[in-house]
Amino acid sequence: xxxxxxxxxxxxxxxxxxxxxxxxxxxxxxxxxxxxxxxxxxxxxxxxxxxxxxxxxxxxxxxxxxxxxxxxxxxxxxxxxxxxxxxxxxxxxxxxxxxxxxxxxxxxxxxxxxxxxxxxxxxxxxxxxxxxxxxxxxxxxxxxxxxxxxxxxxxxxxxxxxxxxxxxxxxxxxxxxxxxxxxxxxxxxxxxxxxxxxxxxxxxxxxxxxxxxxxxxxxxxxxxxxxxxxxxxxxxxxxxxxxxxxxxxxxxxxxxxxxxxxxxxxxxxxxxxxxxxxxxxxxxxxxxxxxxxxxxxxxxxxxxxxxxxxxxxxxxxxxxxxxxxxxxxxxxxxxxxxxxxxxxxxxxxxxxxxxxxxxxxxxxxxxxxxxxxxxxxxxxxxxxxxxxxxxxxxxxxxxxxxxxxxx
Length: 407
Description:
By secondary structure, this protein is an alpha/beta fold. The protein is built from 18 helices and 7 strands.
């Protein structure tokens, strides 16, 4: 075992632990640290066979275990807890060392932290990490921002642990300065909310109008997943709809509580879009739908209101209707992705970020929640529309690449 670590992870909840294991599995010696030393030792005891770990009980031991330039990944709750960790470790670091925040931080906090640490000579990287617990362990999509020089030593490591697209390209790129990485991750999550809302509405139409059962809708989604709607969310929707609850024998979708929570990133996407003057109506409606799902009493009361009832469709009519739902779902996805890229482009102009929209589309092709086959078409459309880091995505550019995606 090495006596010095190439990278360290502090904050060993599931995401932090899985990310540390991912680094170790890829041949890196990883220093691990947690506020509770018991969790640190438990990680090494349970997963030490996966690679080389150095367990550190104190902040000082953790920093001393890292080779220079030190690369310290923070995986704790956003907001105050992240600030507290930075305040604990920054005095122990030296100029040229690096702190990487892998949480869902608000991009404005990341900008503030990067500016403050820059004065101390410390490189601060706000890295959006998408893919959940499985992605953290087996390969996420990673969106690091911060000083360009930070990517020289950190980038190759992130590229090695990241997801790989179908063409083998790593799903990571240096997004841009200060808070650019966390901004792009925020918008990713906003698009994710819209994607899931659209899928939910497609399901409702297929069930309430076409009259299909959850099992039948699962088969429809499996078919869609072999075509232009091929994506992670369509795939797992089919799996969920096919699942039967063992206790009741009912479709799982009829048993699970129909209330959704949100981490805040989707809400931030809408709030910042208002500040930037960017219409993100599809994303906003998805955020509002999540909020509405939590008002159970209001929803129960509304169910007794009079309203139109769908007439039963024949088998032929239902099949034709399902085809129209597929077309509407695809068109709506184009709208939500276009709105997301428009917001990123507006932020690029507002904050003078050198973000390559084509590369953003490229790194979302694997690992992340919204990974979908048509991201290749988005990337190609952006390229054909001459959207690059030195040309702003105006009305004609947006219309151009939206049309190319549809074609």
